[in-house]
Amino acid sequence: MTRYSTFCCIQKRPPPYIMADAITPRDEDYSQWYLDVVKAAKLADYSPVRGCMIIRPNGYGLWENMQDALDKMFKDTGHENAYFPLFIPQSFLAKEAEHVEGFAKECAVVTHSRLTVSEEDGELMADPESELEENLIVRPTSETIIWDTYSKWIQSWRDLPILINQWANVVRWEMRTRLFLRTMEFLWQEGHTAHATREEAVEEARQMLEVYTSFAEDFMALPVIQGTKTPSERFAGAVETYCIEALMQDGKALQAGTSHFLGQNFAKAFDCTFQNKNNELEYVWATSWGVSTRLIGALIMTHSDDKGLVMPPRLAPTQVVIVPIFRNDDEKVQVLEVADRIRRELDTRDVAVKLDARESQRPGWKFAEYEAQGVPVRLAIGPRDVKNENAEIARRDTGEKSIVPQAGLPDRIVALLDEIQQSLYDQAFSFREEHTTEVSDYDEFKEVLKEEGGFIIAPWDGTDESEAQIKEETKATIRCIPFDQDDVEGTDLVSGKPATHRVIFAKAY
RNA sequence: CGGGGCGUAGCGCAGCCCGGUUAGCGCGUCUGCUUUGGGAGCAGAAGGUCGCCGGUUCGAAUCCGGCCGCCCCGACCA
Fold first, then answer.
1. Is the peptide bond between A410 and the residue preceding it cis, with omega within 30 degrees of 0?
2. How far is the CA of A361 from the C1' of B39 (A)?
3. Which CATH class is domain A42-90+138-303?
4. Which nucleotide is nearest to A175 (CA to C1')?
5. Neighbours of A1 (CB within 10 A)
6. Which of A141, A260, A427, A449 is the most buried (most CB within 10 A)?
7. Distances in Å between the alpha carbon of A481 and those of A27, A112, A140?
8. Using one digit for the tens of pLDDT, what is the confidence trace for A58-100?
9. A307 CA, B26 C1': Å apart
10. Does A182 have pLDDT greater than 80?
């Protein structure tokens, strides 16, 4: 159908030039590269409070698109949104033994309700008179307040299941923070469901892991491996934690989403029972599942390059930017007419398109700026293009540029966005394949870990001791036990005992 | 909590060792003209209680003491 299907590359990559926001190359300092990209792409800023971040419009736009896609998937699987409070009575957290142990060390505690001016030094201080009768904690996660509530909502099997999600912020007082990857306050969604049977709850937890997998792969272009967490990596209070694990460009693993089968632990802690069809009183079965703004960190570290952010088209707040080029008013009128016509055409095709007609910045500046910000496709239209009825297309992922006719441009762009989406996935998938190694002995394990990192598949005897020893000696942890394991061969790397599972080891974020 | 680094203009830094004109440079900002197909050029301008408190001194960004904050690397974690 498309008459002009051949892209002609008219120019190679431009030589490096001095950039306003220089980005440290990845192979020089990966950690600094990440911070430079976040800054150059205007995703986030540091806040006056250590460990917190200001999410800028570019970053928040990404999050909004993630929310839209996920929210639709949650609704399609029967969930409803609700909102539970930020403040939780301190006593609630103590009710589930493992849960309190897991979170007690990182809770922000509210002890007073007002400020007053000190008589001694005139400084503002918490008013001693206003000390709360019971401390409040800022939610690190909402299981406790939700199960307190569910215990009031649920009496009968007729009240089940409850399938609720909430979009919220949570606070975990972290020692060491990194923008998006680990911040003291972060945005997330947390699903909390209540079920009549164990089977149904397990099925729910597995279903939501599938939802996360689809989201990661189809929207983020992020290939992930599904599996189960080992007991040591399990969520505090869960019976089983399922996860999706992704591999970043530096060879480190990142947990991209978790889904927990909570058994009856929280039901017991909050006395949440129901009468079943046999007229027996039974504890409710639970799940919880979440993904956070950390996914933005995953997205950055999976696709971006030394020129800045690379966004997958399906999540990009701006998918196409049009940069007009002109030297005088005559050219301006002609160029903008064409540029705006193309903008409208793309708009009717539901392409998120932006025409940047600002005259305060020059075209070259805009090229660099949108590349740093990761906009998937750039169209440049100048006097030559008006005359020849062409446009210049540049794709962010490969840097490829081509001159194409204006006729049929919307179709071409829509197809190109899909192509870029797929190409990003393929590239990330190949990278993961190339950096996944199967080993059978400990020396080989250490060698691979040291030389190239990545995912290392190895036999494990299922004991905490082996896992702990390997972590102690190499810093690598078991990221997950992949699903569907039949015959497991080989022996544990350190104990030499017969393996019970083949697991994925990696250094992790 | 350990190790390292840093606080001087909106941002990035120099000056500090060896105290002494009016605290300087780059980027950015503002004005004007020329420019505009890969981060423009020239000319001019604005912008600072040198992190905070105290001490030494005729005189402190600089020396001394204390405090505070932030970033990076580790231990802990999504």
1. no
2. 9
3. alpha beta
4. B76
5. 5
6. A260
7. 31, 45, 26
8. 999 999 999 999 999 999 999 999 999 999 999 999 899 889 8
9. 22
10. yes
For the cut 80, the answer to whether the pLDDT of residue A439 exceeds it is yes
Q: Could you identify the residue whose CA is nearest to the C1' atom of nucleotide B38? A: A364
Q: What span, in angstroms and rounded, lies between the C-alpha atoms of A441 and A147?
A: 45
Q: Which nucleotides in chain B lie less than 7 Å from some protein C-beta?
A: 1, 27-28, 35-40, 69-78
Query: What ipTM was predicted for this assembly?
Result: 0.86
Rounded, the Å distance between the CA of A176 and C1' of B5 is 16
The average pLDDT across A162-189 equals 92
Judged by C1' against the alpha carbon of A229, the nearest nucleotide is B78
Which nucleotide is closest to the Cα of A34 by its C1'? B72
Which nucleotide lies at the shortest CA–C1' distance from A50? Answer: B70
Whole-number average pLDDT of chain A: 91
pLDDT in tens, A189-219: 999 999 999 999 999 999 999 999 999 999 9
Q: How far is the CA of A46 from the C1' of B59 (A)?
A: 40
As a rounded value in angstroms, the CA-to-C1' distance for A16 and B43 is 29
A320-429 fold? Rossmann fold (3.40.50)
Amino acid A7: pLDDT: 27
Report the 10 Å Cβ neighbour count for A496.
11
CA of A306 to C1' of B26 (A): 23
pLDDT of A419 strictly over 90:
yes
pLDDT given at position A21: 62
Parts of chain A belonging to CATH 3.30.930.10: 42-90+138-303
Looking at chain A, the domain(s) classified CATH 3.30.110.30 span 436-506
Work out whether strand A80-81 and strand A124-126 pair parallel, antiparallel, or are unpaired. Answer: unpaired
Q: Residue A363: which nucleotide is closest by CA–C1'?
A: B36
Give the closest residue to A415 by CA, choosing from A431, A393, A382.
A393
**Exposed e or buried b per residue across A244-281, where buried means at least 16 C-beta atoms within 10 angstroms of its C-beta:** bbbbbbbbbbbbbbbbbbbbbbbbebbebbbeeeeeee
Under CATH, which number does the domain A436-506 receive?
3.30.110.30
